[in-house]
Design brief:
Layout (H helix, E strand, L loop, with lengths): L2 H19 L12 E8 L5 E8 H12 L2 H13 L2 H10 L1 H11 E5 L2 E2 L1 E4 L4 E5 L2 E11 L8 E4 L13 E8 L2 E7 L5 E3 L4 H18 L1 H13 L3 H23 L7 H26 L5 H7 L9 H23 L9 H35 L1 H28 L2
Parallel strand pairs: 1-9
Antiparallel strand pairs: 1-2, 2-7, 3-4, 3-8, 5-7, 6-7, 8-11, 9-10
Length: 405
């Protein structure tokens, strides 16, 4: 391969990786928030909603929106002190501002008519995802003869610049019906009269969008593809990864596993570097015969036969898949048992992830296979540069997430 072609190949590959990795690592996970809303039947035909909001974000957003500096000072001080009682007291002392912020961005309507909210009791404190969450109970009085209430949430919008991509997970159980929905900026409302497939589509879409927006998971997948020399390897690697992250995803959904994101996110970044570095180590180990890796793969026996290194790599991928499952669960803030209805919705969220994953494999792997067979040296350089770039990004993110940079 000529020096000019080699430089062009390296430049193009590096540009693709840089484009994928451009922007802060927060695009993958972090600096997002999840609101939880439980909707039930109240007394006298009213609707009762129990909202749980991330405390420090709630304090900052409400104080800024309502121009309540005392709320910010009291709430932020209680947060830094880790004093749960003081946190609840700060919100209850400034309940007018806190409730006003919520009711301007969270509403219940019925037959097009707005339902009137009334706060029930004081703010309470709890924990979600290892951080303080504030609880707010609201009673909604709707016009008589109302049916199929509609819930709308625009809490913590991107325009506030404090977080990006807030999701509101709604579960409801009223009038003999139960279900769940996931709301975001693109789809801020839903009606309880929606068909089951419409609600499930929301979770499928969220799963697909999460993988596409999670650059770290895409780079991990690219590392798997680049290091797989034949179809059986990428199929087994993808299957191993899928099974592993599905296990921890569902364990988190059932509330059986609760690992802080501060521990999960650095390991996800490290997994990217390790999987990409694995292939680079193979290339270095083979030295001048590195291009023979693909020839060896083409001569492999059996559809699912792997050598010792292949099985070891599969085990490593499975272990890292377990960690990635916790990252996927963290996208919806899952750390407690929900209803079975919501559990099935989360399964659909997972299916959305897998669909995009398979689409990326179907697009990228055949292109690399053709390049490897027609120009082995060029194919080796392409996969090597991809792996090197992915490994570097993984190490950078690992340091950033480990030290909170």
């Amino acid at each position: 391969m000529s020096q000019r072609v080699r430089r062009a190949l390296v430049g193009i590959t590096a540009a693709v990786i840089a484009l994928l990795s451009f922007g802060p690592s927060a695009q993958a996970h972090g600096f997002t928030s999840t609101v939880y809303a439980d909707v039930t039947s109240g007394e006298g035909g009213h609707i009762r909603t129990k909202l749980r909001l991330e405390y420090d974000l709630f304090v900052v957003s409400a104080a800024d929106s309502e121009g309540d500096d005392p709320l910010f000072r009291a709430g932020n001080g209680a947060f830094e002190a880790g004093d749960t009682g003081a946190q609840a007291a700060a919100l209850n002392t400034h309940a007018e501002s806190a409730v006003s912020y919520v009711t301007k961005r969270f509403s219940v309507t019925s037959n097009g008519a707005a339902c009137a909210p009334t706060r029930v009791g004081d703010f309470t404190m709890g924990r979600q995802e290892g951080v303080p969450y504030a609880g707010l109970l609201l009673d909604w009085a709707c016009p008589e003869g109302s049916a199929d209430p509609e819930v709308r949430s625009t809490l913590f919008p991107d325009a506030e610049t404090y977080v990006k991509g807030t999701k509101t997970i709604v579960t409801y159980e009223m009038d003999g019906r139960s279900g769940s929905a996931a709301l975001d900026a693109a789809h801020p409302s839903f009606s309880m009269g929606q068909a089951w497939y419409e609600r499930f589509w929301e979770f499928f879409r969220l799963g697909a969008e999460h993988l596409l927006g999670g650059i770290d998971h895409i780079l991990f997948l690219l590392a798997l593809i680049a290091g797989s020399r034949r179809l059986r390897e990428i199929v087994l690697a993808a299957t191993s990864f899928t099974l592993a992250h599905s296990v921890t995803f569902m364990l988190a959904a059932l509330g059986l596993v609760d690992v802080p994101s501060k521990a999960v996110e650095p390991v996800i970044a490290l997994s990217i570097a390790v999987v990409a570095g694995w292939y680079l180590w193979q290339i270095r180990r083979r030295g001048g015969h590195a291009a023979d890796l693909d020839l060896d793969a083409a001569a492999g026996r059996g559809h699912f036969s792997l050598d010792r290194a292949g099985w070891l790599r599969l085990g490593v991928v499975f272990c890292f898949g377990l960690v990635h499952g916790l990252g996927f669960a963290g996208a919806l803030g899952i750390d407690e048992a929900f209803s079975w209805t919501l559990l099935w919705s989360l399964l659909v969220f997972n299916v959305g992830i897998e669909t995009v994953q398979l689409a990326i494999i179907a697009l990228v792997f055949p292109l690399l296979t053709v390049l490897r067979r027609r120009a082995p040296t060029a194919g080796l350089w392409a996969t090597g540069v991809i792996s090197a770039g992915v490994s570097v990004m993984g190490l950078v993110w690992f340091v950033q997430r480990l030290f909170g940079l």
